[in-house]
Write a structure and sequence with these properties.
Structural class of chain B: alpha+beta
Order of helices and strands of chain A: HEEEHEHEHEEH
Distance between the termini of chain A: 65 Å
Helix content of chain A: 40-55%
Oligomer: heterodimer
Structural class of chain A: alpha/beta
Largest sheet of chain A: 5 strands, mixed
Distance between the termini of chain B: 46 Å
Strand order of the largest sheet of chain A: 5-4-3-6-7
Shape of chain B: elongated
Largest sheet of chain B: 6 strands, antiparallel
Strand content of chain A: 15-25%
Number of helices of chain A: 5
Radius of gyration of chain A: 22 Å
Helix content of chain B: 25-40%
Chain lengths: 174, 540
């Protein structure tokens, strides 16, 4: 009798407790939850660059991918772009591809920006913010490091220094 | 701990105050000349009894009504704190800046204490959860013993139980015919009558006792419905802005649905047409009659990668108006807002001296071209475009965002007499000629705006739980409020006939009813002992 009571009480408390824990967990992770988790497979996407070449992420299996999201209007983006370009040249023959995605801007703005900063890595425009939403990006700039197996190694927001970019490139070098 | 056997033979659980069957007092030491506390029928609230393991301790904590009331008070106070300053979701600036800037040291403190997002904070959720747990355990801990006690009650009750009921009376002689009248009267009043050895128990409205527990079940279902919102996909409430003529992905649908906005319509009441409202319109000025977006809903066919052009199948045309949402597969798209955005800007390339135009150009601010050829050797190139222009700290022109709120251009004007071109910086109400006097200028000709419809995309799969909980809640309230649980005992004790009565509320009604029942008999109406006690106290 006493034992049964203890069991019933334990079960009820356990049920209530797990409901509470789940609610708390779900609520607290709702806003901060990264849509693309570290270690998971990077969602595939396909965009056309300014030269008209189509880039599909999964085509770069076997190489590391440095995926950067930016805007011409964002000052830190402007600062880090030349560094990314330098490192792009250092690593493009070592198996690291640089893909950069501008969020919903005009071709003119992007082209002029690229010309002014002499950028020659592939630049794509995410016209419908679809890729941005898939990756759950909020503040720009944002950088994803993807290894040769297509897994996300790191997610970084904020301005990058040249040293940091080099460090990142080393990380995903196959 | 052992069960307690009453002298009437009934075995009660440990902790029982009044025998479940006959009502004899089992806990010795209570003062005997006072009325019996009939709460929960004197049953053993188990929590009060077993206090051994940690599980029991937790159980007992939540089983206390006192704890429950305190939890509610604390939650009320906490909830009111959240209303002092606006919550984070209603402010435009980042929270760490906003509160201090707007409300000084108090705002800073408010932010530091985390009150900016009070209702979503972990501790607030824990408070609500604790109320829920308290509700479940309090109810379980009371309803089970109460049910058992009411089920186990016998007709014949112990003398002490009867004597110490609030309504009690004694008659020396009672005729058989009077008893028959009483029973008949009780039946007419819908009492359920049980008899044993000439003793009578008349009872009605027992189900009213379950009211509070039914009510609690409703509340728990309601809370459960609130919890369901945290499950991904159960509750969607997202903003969606779609410019006229454009198609956007409906958020939170896994890219399944696309919404195309054909046209946004804003209509005002016309005082010439609606004569009835002429005065009101004169007083209020412009009064909006209708906000409407003519939209087309599309569904994606087949798979496509993000960034690729999807294959879309048209599902339906709809005119979304306020309170008339577009509904499809559980999703509702409401007309919620609109804004006007700059769309196109027109300029004329004019000779400053002659003021003669050498051609006009219209620039699509979302997709400007690099070069506009005006013919006859006249052309204009855009060297630089700033959709949301401002001067940066270092004095360079720059753009704040990608939205054309304040467009500015650096033009190169190529003309037959200046084939190398002249450079001019043009912003709204501002022209700068960085390399000296130009012969030509870009004359502002006009702007074109476009409407952007603001929608709210909503899906709520938790409503059924909220509604069900609400209905059960109300049933419980009605059950407990509009019925009374009344019992009348008529029993032979010491050669006399004792009448005792109990109700869970509305004693006046019970006494009136007894008066009616006894009206045609010689029996005296039992008295209200509680009132006598009151009177005695008052009389001294």
């Amino acid at each position: 009798m006493k034992k049964r009571r203890l069991v019933i009480r334990s079960i009820i408390l356990l049920l209530l407790g797990s409901a509470v824990v789940y609610s708390l967990y779900a609520n607290l992770t709702r806003d901060t939850k990264q849509k693309v988790a570290i270690g998971s497979e990077a969602p595939d996407f396909a965009l056309v660059d300014m030269q008209g070449n189509k880039h599909q992420l999964s085509d770069y299996r076997g190489q590391g991918v440095f995926l950067n999201f930016w805007g011409t209007w964002c000052p830190p983006c402007k600062k880090e772009m030349p560094y990314i370009n330098n490192q792009y040249h250092q690593y493009k023959d070592k198996g690291v591809q640089v893909l950069t995605v501008d969020i919903q801007e005009s071709e003119l703005a992007v082209n002029q920006f690229a010309d002014r900063l002499k950028l020659d890595f592939p630049i794509m425009i995410d016209t419908d913010k679809e890729v941005m939403n898939t990756y759950g990006i909020d503040p720009l700039p944002a950088t994803f490091l993807i290894d040769k197996n297509g897994k996300v190694v790191k997610y970084y927001t904020g301005e990058l220094t040249e040293d940091k970019i080099r460090e990142f490139m080393e990380k995903i070098k196959p | 701990m052992n069960d307690v056997k009453c002298e009437c033979g009934h075995v009660n659980p440990h902790g029982t105050v009044l025998c479940e069957a006959c009502g004899k007092e089992l806990m010795i030491g209570t003062i005997t000349d006072q009325l019996i506390d009939m709460r929960y029928e004197g049953s053993a609230r188990r929590s009060q009894t077993y206090n051994k393991t940690i599980i029991d301790k937790i159980w007992n904590f939540f089983s206390s009504v006192k704890v429950g009331v305190w939890l509610i008070i604390i939650t009320l106070v906490a909830s009111s704190l959240g209303t002092i300053l606006p919550q984070e979701m209603y402010i435009d600036l980042p929270a760490d800046v906003y509160y201090e800037q707007e409300y000084g040291w108090f705002g800073k403190l408010y932010y530091q204490l985390g009150f900016n997002n009070l209702y979503g904070s972990w501790w607030y959720l824990i408070l609500i959860a604790m109320i829920g747990i308290s509700l479940v355990i309090c109810s379980l801990d009371r309803v089970v013993p109460l049910y058992k006690a009411l089920k186990a009650q016998r007709v014949t009750r112990h003398e002490g139980f009867l004597k110490r009921q609030r309504v009690f009376g004694v008659n020396d002689v009672v005729s058989e015919s009077d008893l028959t009248v009483i029973k008949k009267q009780l039946k007419e009043r819908h009492y359920h009558i049980r008899e044993e050895n000439g003793d009578v128990l008349a009872e009605k409205g027992r189900f009213s006792r379950w009211g509070p527990y039914v009510n609690h079940v409703g509340l728990i279902i309601f809370l459960f419905g609130g919890m369901l919102r945290f499950i991904p996909g159960m509750y969607v409430n997202e903003d969606l802005w779609v410019r006229e003529g454009e198609t956007a992905i409906v958020p939170e649908t896994d890219g399944q649905f696309y919404l195309h906005n054909n046209k946004f319509i804003l209509e005002h009441y016309d005082k010439n047409k609606d004569k009835t409202f002429e005065k009101a319109i004169n007083k209020a000025g412009e009064v909006v009659k209708n906000y409407q977006s003519n939209v087309v809903l599309y569904k994606r066919v087949g798979q496509n990668l993000p960034g690729e052009k999807p294959n879309l199948k048209k599902i339906k045309d709809y005119k979304v108006r306020v309170n008339l949402p577009l509904q499809y597969e559980g999703y509702s798209v409401f007309q919620a807002s609109f804004r006007n955005e700059l769309n196109k800007m027109s300029f004329a390339l004019t000779n400053k001296q002659t003021n003669i135009s050498n051609g006009e150009l219209t620039i699509d601010l979302r997709d400007p071209q690099m070069k506009y050829d005006l013919g006859k050797g006249y052309s204009v190139e855009i060297l630089n475009y700033f959709p949301d222009f401002e001067f940066a700290k270092n004095g360079e022109p720059t753009t704040k965002s990608r939205i054309p709120n304040n467009p500015a251009f650096v033009f190169r004007m190529v003309t037959p007499d200046k084939p190398k071109g002249e450079t001019s910086f043009v912003a709204i109400k501002q022209t700068i000629e960085p390399f000296g006097d130009n012969r030509y200028k870009m004359t502002f000709k006009g702007i074109e705006t476009t409407n952007v419809s603001g929608f709210i995309v909503r899906k709520d799969s938790t409503l059924w739980a909220i509604i069900l909980g609400g209905i059960i809640f109300m049933i419980g309230v009605i059950q407990g409020a509009y019925w009374n649980h009344r019992r009348i005992w008529i029993q032979n004790k010491n050669g006399q006939v004792w009448i005792a009565a109990h109700t869970n509320k509305n004693w006046y009604g019970l006494k009136r009813e007894i008066e009616g029942v006894l009206a045609d008999t010689k029996l005296s109406v039992p008295i209200d002992q509680a009132q006598i006690e009151e009177n005695e106290k008052g009389g001294v």
